Amino acid sequence: MLFGLAAGSVALSWIQQSKTRTITALARERTRLLEEVISLEKRERQSLSERLHDGALQYVLVARRDMEEVRDGSVDGMDRVDFALAESSRLLRDVVRELHPEVLARAGLKAAMTSLADGIATRTELAVHLDADSWPDDARTDADHLIYSAAREISTNAIKHAKADNLRFTLAYNGFQATLRIADDGVGIPPERLVHSVEDGHIGFASVCAKVLAAGGAFVVTSPPGTTVSISVPAKRTQRSPEVAGAEN
Question: What range(s) does the Histidine kinase/HSP90-like ATPase domain occupy (predicted)?
Answer without folding.
Answer: 142-237
